[in-house]
Structure formats: structure tokens, C-alpha cells
Design goal:
Largest interface: A-B, 24 and 28 residues
Distance between the termini of chain B: 43 Å
Strand content of chain A: 15-25%
Number of strands of chain B: 10
Order of helices and strands of chain B: HEEEHEEHEHHHEHEHEEH
Shape of chain A: elongated
Shape of chain B: globular
Number of helices of chain B: 9
Largest sheet of chain B: 6 strands, mixed
CATH topology of chain B: Rossmann fold
Strand order of the largest sheet of chain A: 4-5-10-7-9-8
Oligomer: heterodimer
Bound molecules: adenosine-5'-triphosphate, magnesium ion
Strand order of the largest sheet of chain B: 6-7-8-3-9-10
Structural class of chain A: alpha+beta
């Protein structure tokens, strides 16, 4: 029996091609994802282990200033801000018996400008740090390829890539922006490093320690101390010794090098696991779509072999043997395609690895990791999917009665099985649609589960029901098609109608992708629109000034801007993390008058002006937060400030969702006594004449044309806040493109099957006078009809699900209104028609090449 | 030599052709030294070996001969379905060997009717739609009166909305004949149209074909293995090994059978 299976596979190579390709693509997606994340994960793990090799213990303080690149972030950010470590502490630590040497570090934002005054690097990991040479004059983190480390104020060293991008050599002047004004420095050295800031595609500027302390913290203080262990001293032992020297006020955080390396590795792994989970979801979608194609192919192969199988049954083969033989065929196809898919996946992974380095993200080099689990998982998935999809056709094959060998007629799909299918479909569709509507009816997040489950079941229900739906739909489109394309249109619609199961399976494959694409688009665009309302809509400011990479601004920036002519208000929005009522909360602190001029705070409760409440020392709370915390206007809550001071504040009112502000807003004068250097992520600017190119330039000039500062007008603010959603949508489109490709393969497959099965008909049509061109058009139209049928049902379902999902998130996203991106939907439908046309290219060519006589003679 | 479709009425065309060919009888199709060779080298088969034959207008010709003698090949070449290797195949005053695929397709659509042994109909179309299919392809309006007459003649009036799968083999062949007649082609080629039918249905189909010749002035060329079928024709042409070996005017079944017998014994004796 298995020999028959192999023979059958070999005999139908061409017809199994699309099936094999779809399985291969799915498996390639899976294995590519696994190999890529394993490879990258291992490489990053090795790298982080290496970068902490010289660190026995690291002591970090949550003192103001940010350590972006080093990977050591104060864990309890904002819990209690210390002033950092003094030189004294450093000296004491370096004299500990187990410690060979100790280095103090201080870092923050710094970016070098190229000759055009533009920031070099990606903008979000441009870091500056102190160069801390040990007794040997070397800092183990950096390897100099030219010159030496900065020794005095005015010297800097640049990482190699940044130097190359800006064309800097040792001795050249370079403009460096920090969160203060731009200054010109002299390049004393160029180095390589495995610092995270650089590997992430940013830049690293090294200053002498005194300058860095001055800039980032305060003179003589460090944010972090790393100690290298002496020979024979364990990290744990050093940790204990170090702890003795530190104040017990919770401002210092100590970790061993191993813990840090592990933590970083874990963090990287987590960030990858999110990515690989997402990729896996899309791989699953692609494979799911592939099932339809595979099922179609095996159904056809079984139908073609009806007589042969019946003969086998007549000769005494059992049903079980027939099922097994078909499944064995599926196994052979699945295994072959999986092997090819695995190879392709590995190739894709290594290609991606190379491509990512090409795009500037410095991924550490490392060997391609092909874990045995990857091989097993990829092959198992491919084989199982193929066999699963072939299961129903195999069962159907087993049901062929032996008598079919003798009868001439082909067995039509029994009406009964469609009746059963339709009944199941109607119940499933109706039930799940009801579930979705019920979930949406609540209008809040409680409906999320019903809507999610309902949407999934609805998709399945519609797939089950598609053969039934195809009848009226095709009946409706036939007259216009016949009118527009004459006999070709008429025949195309009828041919599409001919095998409802096959047409349905083909269309469903496309519908799945379109459902997801449409749903995500509607949600994305709608959320984007509501975010837009919550940001720009609440802003009366003309500009927002920010630092590259979300770095804090120098507190003097607001003051500098207010000196620019035409500026009526420049309000610094300070950000702090404060324990309010026992829970850390992000807080915006600002000058009440300045805030009133630049932000429209729409109060939900308490009609008094928000300015007045703030000026009275009360805090304002975002409505959503107030609800979840159970706060009401007038309530008094306990506050524990970063410096440890405890106090009580009154809630002065609640305001509607506002993305510019944190959930809690207070007056800057209330916060100031408890903060060292305030953290100012953004300054809002209101001008007398409104936004203009000249005004923006004047503000930039007033700030010394710092390349790291961006002066964003309202449109730019809009892009910044909505940009993430657009990027995500683009990514989703890219990933869903994969399932569309497989769906397109399904259309190719179906058409090729149809052409093969109808070759006599096509020959007859050609004999009685249908030209080649019109034969092609007939098949192309059939492809377009099937594709559009799938696309339209997918879009409709996508819209419905998006509506329901929108209802469940609207409570959390004030001002959420469903926006229908008709332009995008039109593009999706256009693309689907194009998919049909492209998918028809090969089958139409085959049909047109059919020899009329061969076709007639087959009979 | 003109390849454009003839204009004007049928009778005029026929007259013109007569004058041009300098013949006394109107010619529907003519093969001159027609040779068809399949394959090359060892697989070379001479299917037609210098066949010259004239199919006159309004005549019902039967072609007979042993299997593999080239009957179908001759028909395919005359109908513009297959390219000739040498010699000439003319339909009316059109030389087929110089036509391109598109022109041949046009010509088949406008001037030729076909009835095959099997698989004549599109399963998705109703009987009526199958009958008017050539006109639909040409984008022409069918001649209602003529169509009704044809349908009435083949006795399909009650079955027009049926699909082929709902019709018997004989009924399906009737639809095929009706389709061939509906466009009033210059010539109808039928390749073993009764090959799959019982004698009763065969007789009906053959009757229609003969009546179309007698009453409508149709020209019909039919390939058959059945002496009884051949007896419906005005003459029988015998093929063997790609050559015309005999001809019989106003045949009877007995006469045809007699010829075949003589022919096969003749050939078996060398
Ligand atoms: N496409 C082809 N390639 C090669 N040889 C062919 C081809 N078509 C026909 N032949 C050969 O040409 C010869 C004539 O074939 P043809 O089909 O015309 O015979 P026929 O008289 O119609 O036979 P039958 O009564 O069996 O239908 C045969 O020897 C056949 O093998
Ligand atoms: Mg033949």
C-alpha cells in the first residue's frame, strides 16, 4: 500500500506542487523564526556575558540622569532618588580585599553632530559616559583603535562607527549635544566597544570623568560603581563586603556581574520571545490558510482516482487501507515539503541576520543555531498539517463503494453532506455572531473574551458556510459579468459555481487574511484617530520640544525658549514617579498658569478651573485612574515623595483621557522641594503668531541649534504619537502578506486543477470557435471572481469584528470612534483582484496552450 | 486568395466559388494532395498520404475505413483543427493552410459545425445555452425562427432548460446536432456521432443529419464505422492507410458492408 502511495505522489508531482510549496512556506516561516531567534538570543547572551566579564559587582544608584546604554538601569526608578556615590565610596570599595579595581560611572544623553548639524545615530540610544581609566590607564570596556581616552574638559572619544559616519579623526573638532547646550569638543580617540548603546545602532561619546559628572549628575558623584574581583574572590563574597559600605536607605542597588549578565540575557530573551511569539502566530495563520489548499488538492486527487480506489476496494482492500494509503501520500508530501521548508527557513534566518546588520542594527555575530527542537518542531508541524488537511479527503476516499469501479458516472458530492455542513455552519455562525454582538453590547472591556472567542468561531462558521454562500453570490454576479464580458463572463461565473466546496475553500483561504487585515486596519486607524484626538486635540500649544531618544531636557530649556520673541508660554512638563496612596504613579508637574495656556485639561468632575486647583496645591487625576483607584474629588491621599518625605494631598478634580499628561498632575512648586534635578521630557510652547517655519527656526536658534533637540509642530506630534500604530500596522501587513501568498497559491492550485479537469471542455470550446485570448479571459475572470468573493467576505467579517472589538476598547480609550478606512479597504480589494489575475497567469497559459485535438481525443 | 469571411448571401458565394473554380457543382470543401505526417524518424506516421477529395454543397458524405486509416485526421485537417503537412485544404474559397490560429478559430466559429463522438456539451450550460453557444461566442443574435425550427426538428422543445447531466446520451447528441445546425455553417463535421448510441437513438440522429441536408441544404461530412449509418449518406468514401481507396454513391447498408468485406479480404490477401 505504501508503495502505491509513493507511486501516486510521483505520478502527480505537478499537481502536488502548490500543496508542497504552501507547506514549505509555512514550515519555512516556523523554522526561520525559531532559528533566527535562537541565533540572535545566543549571540546576545554571549555578548552580555562578555560585557559583564570584568564586573564582579555593580552598585547603581537611582540618582538623576539616565544610563541608557550600559544595560544597568536603576531597578526601582524614582523610588527614592539618591545623590549617587561619592569618590570616597569608590575609593573604599576599591580598597576592599576581594576587589581588584573599582570604576565609577556616570552617563546620560550625548550625541555627535555631523557636518550638516544632524545627529549621528538612531536618536534613541545616543549615550554619553565618563572614560574611567584604571591604574594601567585603560578602561576595560573600550578598545582604542586610534588616539586615547579623553583626559580633560573639552576632550571626547567617539565610537568607531560614529566617527566613521561623521568623518571624524583624532584631533578633529566635533559638536556634541547633551541635554545642555551644544559644545565643540576635540576628538582624542576612537574606540570599539560592545556597549549596548552602540550595538543598538546609537552612538557613544566618552568624556573625562569630571565633565561627565558635571553634566550628568553633580561633581564628584557617580551613578554606578563596578568592581572587578581579585583572583579567588567570589562575586557573592564581594557583594557582601560592598553592602557593608553602602547606606541602608534603599538608594543603592547591588548586583553581581553574573546577576546582571543573567538579567540582561533574560531581558533580551523576553524581548525576543514577544517577537517570536508574534511571528509564530503569523506562521500559524499561514499554515492554517495552507490547510485549505492541501485539502483541495487531496480532494481532487481522490476524485480523480475514484475508479482506481473503487477497484482496490473491489479487489478486497479495506476502508482502513484506503484511508492509510491517502494519508501515507500526505505524509510523503508533508515530509518532503517540510525538509525543503526547513532548509528555506534556515536560509531566511541567516539572510535576516545579515540584513539586520545591514540596516544599522548592530547584531552580534554568532553561529547559526539550528536546535534539534527546531528541526523536530518544523517537520512535525509540516507533516501534521498536511496529514490533518488530507484527513477528510482520505475518509471520503474510503467511503467510495466498490461498485463505483463499474459505474461510469463520477460520484457527485452528496447533497446530504452539504446539508449537514450547512446546518453546522448556520448554527455555528449564528451562535458566534450572537456571542460577538452580546460581547459588544456591554460597551466595555468585559466583552473582550466573548468577542474574541465569538470572532474566532464566527470565522470558522463562515468557512463552513462558504459553499452555501457562494451560490447566491455567484448567481448575483453572473448577469453583470455576462453583460460585461459576454460568454467568457457567463462561463467564468458558472465555472466558479461548479464545485462549491473547492471554490469555498479557495476563497476562504483568502478571506482569513483579509479578515485579519481589515480588522487590524480599522482598529489601527480608529485607535490612531482617537489617540490623535487625545494628544493634538488636547493641545493648545503650537510646538512640543523634545530631546532625541526620549532623553530628558535640561531644565533650563523652557526658560531659554521663553526668551525667544513671539513665544507667549513655554511650559516644562516635568515627569516624576511618586508613591501615591501606596502605589507608584507617573506624575506630571508643571506651572499651573503655563499648563493652562498650553494644554486643554477638560475636567470631568469639579467645574472649577484646573489652574486654580493646581495653584492651591491640589492634584488632578485622570478620570480612568481615579475610577480604578476609587478616588473622588475632595479625597485626601497619602503621598511619599522621592526624597522620602511623606505628605497628604487633596484631589482637586478628575480630567478626561489626555495622552500629553500623566495620570496625576500637580503643580511644579509642590514637587520641586522633593526633587534634585527635575526630569523634563518635554516643553510645550505657545506662540503669539501660531506655528510657522520661521517661528520653529527661531526656537531652534534660541536653543543653540542643538541637533538632539526636536521642535515638533502639531503635525509632527501627530506623527510621533500615531507613528507607532502605523509602524505596527505596516509590520502586520507584511506578516499577513505571507498568508496572502499562500492563499494566492491556493487560487493557482484551484485554477490549475480546474483547467486540468476541464481540458476536454476547453478543447471543445476552442473547436467551436472560442479564441485563445478569450479562453484565458474566462479563466482569469473565474480567478478574480473567486478571489473577490473571498476578499469581500473577509472584509465584511473584518469590519464586523473590528466594530465589536472597538466597542470593547472604547471604554478605555475615550473618544474612540470607529473610522472606516475606505481607501485602504479599496486597496485591499484591488490587491485581491490582482492576486486573482496573477494567480491565473500560469493556469491560463496552460489552458491556452492546450492542443484542441488532444483535448478532443481524450474522450 | 482572400481570407476574409465571405459576405452576402450563401447562394452568391457559392456561385462565385463555382466560377472561380470553374466547376459545375458548388464546392463546400476540397482537399488536394493533402498529406499529414505525425512525428519524425522512427515514430513518423503518415496519417494522410496525398488525399484529394471534394465535398459538394448540400451533400451528405460518409467516410469509412479501418481504425487508424486517417478518417479523423482528414476531418480535423478539413475543419481547420489541425495543420496540414503538404497539399491544400480549402473551405469554400478559403485556403486553410495559410491561416493563423486566430483566423482558423474565427473560421471554425463562423463556417463549421461540429458533432463529436462524446463530450460535445458544456455541463454548466442548459441545453438551450449549449445550442446558442457558438452565436454567444461570436456575439451574434441567434436567428429566432431558424433556431425554433432546428429545435423542433431535433425534438428538444421540452428539454431546453435541462443540463447535459439530466439528458440521456441520445438527447445530448441531439443537442450537439442542434448546436451544429443552429449557426447554419457551410459544413458540418461529425466524427462517429452515433458511436456511443443505441440503434434507435442512432437512427434519430442520422435522420436529423440527413434531413438537414435534404431540407435545409446543409453540407455534412460524417466519419463512421457503421454501414447502416453510412447508408444515410449520399456517398461513402473509403480510406485505408491514409489514401482514398474507393467511393460509393447512394449507398445501402448491404452495399457498404459488401465493400468493406471485399476491401478487408483484399487487403488481407496483400
Ligand atoms: N497526434 C498524433 N500523433 C501521432 N500520430 C497520430 C496522431 N494522431 C493520429 N495519429 C496517427 O495517425 C493515424 C490516423 O489516425 P486517425 O485518428 O485519423 O485514425 P482514424 O481513422 O480516425 O481511426 P479510428 O477509426 O480508430 O478513429 C493513426 O495511425 C494514428 O496513430
Ligand atoms: Mg477517429
Amino acid at each position: 500500500m505504501s508503495r502505491t502511495a509513493l507511486r501516486n505522489v510521483l505520478a502527480h508531482k505537478a499537481r502536488l506542487l502548490m500543496t508542497a510549496v504552501s507547506v514549505m512556506l509555512g514550515v519555512a516561516f516556523v523554522s526561520g523564526t525559531l532559528v533566527f531567534s535562537d541565533t540572535l538570543g545566543t549571540a546576545f547572551k554571549n555578548q552580555s556575558a562578555k560585557s559583564y566579564a570584568h564586573v564582579a559587582v555593580a552598585i547603581s544608584s537611582n540618582a538623576s540622569g539616565s544610563n541608557v546604554g550600559g544595560g544597568i538601569r536603576p531597578k526601582a526608578r524614582g523610588l527614592a532618588a539618591g545623590k549617587g556615590f561619592t569618590q570616597q565610596t569608590l575609593d573604599k570599595i576599591s580598597k576592599l580585599p576581594g576587589v581588584a579595581s573599582a570604576v565609577g560611572r556616570v552617563s546620560g544623553f550625548a550625541g555627535a553632530a555631523d557636518s550638516k548639524g544632524k545627529l549621528i545615530g538612531n536618536g534613541w540610544s545616543n549615550t554619553g559616559a565618563n572614560f574611567a581609566p584604571g591604574p594601567d590607564g585603560k578602561d576595560p570596556r573600550y578598545t582604542f583603535v586610534a588616539g586615547s581616552g579623553p583626559a580633560q574638559t573639552g576632550d571626547v572619544a567617539l565610537d568607531k562607527d560614529t566617527a566613521a559616519k561623521g568623518g571624524f579623526h583624532v584631533g578633529d573638532p566635533v559638536e556634541v549635544a547633551t541635554n545642555g547646550p551644544v559644545k565643540t569638543y576635540t576628538v582624542t580617540g576612537i574606540f570599539t566597544t560592545d556597549d549596548g548603546a552602540v550595538t543598538a545602532g546609537g552612538s557613544l561619546v566618552l568624556f573625562d570623568t569630571a565633565s561627565a559628572q558635571q553634566m550628568y549628575l553633580s561633581p564628584g558623584h557617580f551613578q554606578e560603581i563596578t568592581a572587578a574581583g581579585a583572583k579567588g574572590a567570589s562575586q557573592q563574597q564581594i557583594l557582601e563586603e560592598v553592602k557593608q559600605l553602602l547606606p541602608k536607605d534603599g538608594t543603592a542597588d547591588t548586583q553581581t556581574g553574573k546577576q546582571l549578565a543573567d538579567a540582561q540575557a533574560k531581558q533580551i530573551e523576553d524581548s525576543f520571545s514577544v517577537m517570536s511569539t508574534m511571528l509564530m502566530v503569523f506562521a500559524a495563520i499561514a499554515l492554517f490558510v495552507g490547510i485549505f489548499l492541501i485539502a483541495n488538492t487531496f480532494t481532487m486527487l481522490v476524485a480523480q482516482r475514484t475508479k482506481e480506489l473503487a477497484l482496490l476496494r473491489a479487489l478486497g482492500a479495506s476502508r482502513r487501507q484506503i484511508t492509510c494509503s491517502v494519508l501515507t501520500e500526505a505524509f510523503i508530501v508533508g515530509a518532503t515539503a517540510s525538509a525543503a521548508g526547513l532548509a528555506l527557513g534556515v536560509a531566511i534566518a541567516s539572510g535576516l541576520h545579515t540584513a539586520m546588520s545591514g540596516f544599522g542594527a548592530k547584531v552580534p555575530a554568532g553561529p547559526l543555531i539550528i536546535a534539534s527542537t527546531t528541526v523536530v518542531a518544523a517537520c512535525a508541524v509540516g507533516v501534521l498539517i498536511t496529514m490533518l488537511a488530507a484527513w477528510l479527503p482520505a475518509r471520503r476516499a474510503a467511503r467510495i463503494p466498490p461498485v463505483a469501479a463499474m459505474t461510469s458516472a463520477e460520484l457527485p458530492a452528496s447533497a446530504k453532506s452539504l446539508l449537514l455542513r450547512n446546518t453546522i455552519g448556520v448554527i455555528l455562525t449564528g451562535g458566534s455572531a450572537g456571542l460577538v454582538v452580546a460581547g459588544a453590547a456591554n460597551g466595555d472591556s468585559s466583552g473582550r473574551w466573548p468577542v474574541g472567542i465569538g470572532a474566532f468561531l464566527l470565522l470558522i462558521g463562515l468557512i463552513v458556510l462558504t459553499p452555501l454562500l457562494s451560490r447566491p453570490v455567484l448567481a448575483v454576479v453572473r448577469p453583470p459579468l455576462a453583460r460585461a464580458f459576454g460568454v467568457c463572463g457567463n462561463l467564468a461565473a458558472r465555472n466558479a459555481h461548479r464545485n462549491p466546496r473547492r471554490t469555498a475553500a479557495t476563497a476562504s483561504a483568502l478571506a482569513i487574511g483579509l479578515t485579519l487585515i481589515t480588522g487590524l486596519s480599522v482598529l489601527g486607524v480608529s485607535i490612531g484617530r482617537s489617540l490623535d484626538k487625545a494628544t493634538v486635540g488636547n493641545l493648545s500649544a503650537d510646538y512640543m520640544v523634545r530631546m532625541a531618544g526620549g532623553m530628558p531636557l535640561d531644565p533650563s530649556v523652557a526658560n531659554e525658549i521663553s526668551k525667544v520673541g513671539g513665544v507667549t508660554a513655554a511650559t516644562a512638563l516635568e515627569l516624576a514617579y511618586i508613591d501615591i496612596g501606596g502605589k507608584i504613579s507617573a506624575v506630571t508637574a508643571a506651572d499651573p498658569r503655563g499648563l493652562a495656556e498650553t494644554v486643554q485639561v477638560s475636567m470631568v468632575t469639579e467645574s472649577r478651573s484646573p489652574q486654580k486647583a493646581l495653584a492651591e496645591g491640589k492634584v488632578l487625576v485622570e478620570n480612568k485612574t481615579a475610577k480604578s483607584r476609587g478616588w473622588k474629588t475632595g479625597d485626601v491621599v497619602r503621598v511619599s515623595y522621592p526624597d522620602g518625605t511623606k505628605a497628604e494631598v487633596t484631589i482637586g478634580g478628575t480630567f478626561a483621557d489626555n495622552l500629553v499628561l500623566s495620570p496625576v498632575v500637580m503643580s511644579d512648586s509642590l514637587l520641586a522641594p522633593h526633587m534634585g534635578k527635575p526630569e523634563v521630557p518635554q516643553v510645550l510652547v505657545k506662540t503669539a503668531g501660531g506655528a510657522s517655519a520661521k517661528m520653529a527656526q527661531a526656537i531652534a536658534d534660541g536653543l543653540g541649534n542643538n541637533p538632539a533637540l526636536s521642535v515638533m509642530d502639531r503635525q509632527k506630534i501627530r506623527n510621533t504619537f500615531g507613528g507607532l500604530i502605523n509602524n505596527m500596522l505596516t509590520l502586520m501587513y507584511g506578516l499577513l502578506g505571507m498568508s496572502l501568498i499562500i492563499a494566492a497559491l491556493g487560487v493557482v492550485n484551484t485554477l490549475a486543477m480546474s483547467v486540468f479537469e476541464r481540458r476536454r471542455e476547453i478543447g471543445m470550446l476552442r473547436a467551436i470557435g472560442l479564441e485563445r485570448g478569450r479562453v484565458k479571459r474566462m479563466i482569469r475572470l473565474e480567478a478574480v471572481v473567486i478571489s473577490l468573493f473571498g476578499a469581500v467576505s473577509g472584509v465584511a467579517l473584518g469590519l464586523f469584528i473590528a466594530w465589536a472589538t472597538g466597542r470593547t476598547i472604547s471604554a478605555d480609550l475615550q473618544g474612540y470612534v470607529m473610522v472606516l478606512p475606505w481607501d485602504r479597504i479599496a486597496i485591499f480589494l484591488g490587491l485581491s483582484a490582482l492576486v486573482g489575475i496573477l494567480a491565473a497567469v500560469w493556469p491560463t497559459r496552460r489552458a491556452a496552450r492546450l492542443d484542441v485535438l488532444d483535448a478532443i481525443k481524450i474522450s | 486568395m482572400t481570407t476574409s469571411p465571405a459576405s452576402g448571401t450563401r447562394a452568391d458565394d457559392a456561385d462565385d466559388a463555382d466560377e472561380a473554380d470553374d466547376c459545375t457543382v458548388a464546392v463546400a470543401a476540397r482537399a488536394t494532395d493533402l498529406t499529414k505526417v505525425y512525428g519524425q524518424g522512427e515514430t513518423r506516421v503518415v496519417a494522410l498520404d496525398g488525399v484529394s477529395i471534394t465535398f459538394r454543397k448540400g451533400e451528405f458524405t460518409a467516410i469509412m475505413g479501418p481504425s487508424g486509416s486517417g478518417k479523423s485526421t482528414l476531418m480535423h485537417c478539413m475543419a481547420g483543427l489541425d495543420a496540414v503537412t503538404a497539399g491544400s485544404a480549402r473551405l469554400g474559397d478559403t485556403e486553410l493552410s495559410v491561416l493563423k490560429d486566430k483566423q482558423l478559430t474565427r473560421l471554425r466559429r463562423d463556417k463549421v459545425g461540429f458533432v463529436f463522438q462524446a463530450f460535445n456539451l458544456l455541463p454548466t450550460l442548459t441545453a438551450a445555452e449549449n445550442i446558442t453557444l457558438p452565436m454567444d461566442i461570436a456575439g451574434r443574435k441567434p436567428d429566432r425562427l431558424w433556431l425554433e425550427k432546428v429545435i423542433e426538428t431535433v425534438g428538444l422543445a421540452g428539454r431546453l432548460s435541462h443540463r447535459p447531466a439530466q439528458l440521456s446520451g441520445g438527447q445530448q447528441q441531439r443537442v450537439a446536432v442542434a448546436r451544429a445546425l443552429a449557426t447554419r455553417p457551410e459544413i458540418i463535421f461529425a466524427d462517429e456521432p452515433t458511436g456511443n448510441l443505441d440503434s434507435q437513438s442512432s437512427a434519430e440522429i442520422l435522420g436529423f443529419l440527413r434531413n438537414s441536408v435534404r431540407e435545409m441544404g446543409q453540407t455534412v461530412v460524417m466519419v463512421t464505422h457503421d454501414p447502416v449509418a453510412a447508408s444515410y449518406a449520399d456517398r461513402v468514401v473509403f480510406l485505408a492507410d491514409g489514401r482514398i481507396v474507393d467511393e460509393l454513391e447512394s449507398p445501402t447498408a448491404e452495399a457498404v458492408l459488401e465493400r468493406i468485406r471485399r476491401f478487408s479480404t483484399g487487403s488481407s490477401h496483400g
